[in-house]
Amino acid sequence: MKLLTYSTNNNPLRLGVLVDENTIVDPQQAYIDLLNESGQERAIEIANALLPADPTQFIAGGDLALKTAKEAISYALENPTQTSALYQKENVQIGAPVLKPNKIICVGLNYKNHILEMKRDLPVHPVIFAKFATAITGPNHIFPLNSNLTKKLDYEAELAFVIGKEGKDIPYEDALDYVFGYTVANDITARDMQKRTLQWLQGKTLDKSLPLGPVLVTKDEIPNPHCLDISLTVNDEVRQKSNTEQLLFNVNHLVEFLSGIITLEPGDIVLTGTPGGVGEAQNKFLQHGDKVKVEVSGIGAIETTIVEVTKE
């Protein structure tokens, strides 16, 4: 299943499911229509409970939510004239597939070639830092560059995974049971801000510095997250190209490690790190008008346009 969020007429973003290249089904609305047809008097209340419009709440619903969503989607596709739950992608606005997670955990220095280009030693333990939910933006939105704030804006192509159920002290071999799905991320970074103190946070969590999408693919469609091609281009020039088999600490290791420190919760996002080829290593920083495309095989691509918004 491929989850996203969508909006019509500038209404709040809500959960949708992409069923082909162009068709989106709103699972909550589809379930309301199904229940109404069966004569259920409390259709809206039941649908709100089982299929919330917020993706984090939907993820927390676990297997029951997924099963109910599949039932609702099948109904909508089989009864297109009896439902108001079908949309064409070009007629809606698309947002990030997860909007307000409790935690966004990022892993630094997790591809050997990136570690070497940043002139760092191979870490013994995962290097982790955080971003805040205000950094999240959609898969094809702009990033507002304030050059008074940063003159060294950089990109980082990343595979991200989303936690599906609460867990603490999760064994390595059980780790993927706690993953809900996978998405594409760009950890946009202000290098000059990142490096002006020992803590990275201020350079890592600027508003709209975490484009996500284009969908959140459930783990059943990606049984092995450690064989995915990952690439990034700036204005069609290839800057990063690798495969997740090169991860120093893979998804299993990260789930085991992180859950030993903190309780992982449904909807938490974990960014797994970036390959070599970042702008910092080449002295190629992002400028007004640049188009940054990140792609991960099996998931899709996101593209962010850099727009100068410097205030005098």
Chain-wise SSE layout:
Layout: E1 2-7, E2 14-18, E3 23-25, H1 27-37, H2 43-50, H3 55-60, H4 62-78, E4 86-88, E5 93-95, E6 104-108, H5 112-117, E7 127-131, E8 136-137, E9 142-145, E10 153-154, E11 157-163, E12 179-186, E13 189-190, H6 191-195, H7 201-204, E14 210-218, E15 229-234, E16 237-243, H8 251-261, E17 269-271, H9 279-282, E18 291-296, E19 300-308
Parallel strand pairs: 6-17, 8-14, 9-19
Antiparallel strand pairs: 1-2, 1-5, 1-14, 2-3, 3-4, 6-7, 10-13, 11-12, 11-17, 12-14, 15-16, 15-18, 18-19
Protein architecture, described:
- With 312 residues, this protein is α+β, with helices and mostly antiparallel strands.
- The chain has two domains: 2-94, SH3 type barrels; 98-308, Fumarylacetoacetate hydrolase, domain 2 (Alpha-Beta Complex), CATH 3.90.850.10.
- Helices cover 23% and strands 30% of the residues.
- The protein is built from nine helices and 19 strands.
- It has helices at residues 27-37, 43-50, 55-60, 62-78, 112-117, 191-195, 201-204, 251-261, 279-282; strands at 2-7, 14-18, 23-25, 86-88, 93-95, 104-108, 127-131, 136-137, 142-145, 153-154, 157-163, 179-186, 189-190, 210-218, 229-234, 237-243, 269-271, 291-296, 300-308.
- Strands 1, 2, 3, 4, 5, 6, 7, 8, 11, 12, 14 and 17 form a twelve-stranded mixed β-sheet that branches. A five-stranded mixed β-sheet has the order 9-19-18-15-16, with no helix packed on it.
- A hairpin with a 6-residue loop joins strand 1 and strand 2.
- Helix 1 runs antiparallel to helix 2 (43-50) and helix 1 (27-37) crosses helix 4.
- The longest helix has 17 residues, at 62-78.
- The protein is globular.
- The termini are far apart.
- The model has no long low-confidence stretch (mean pLDDT 96).
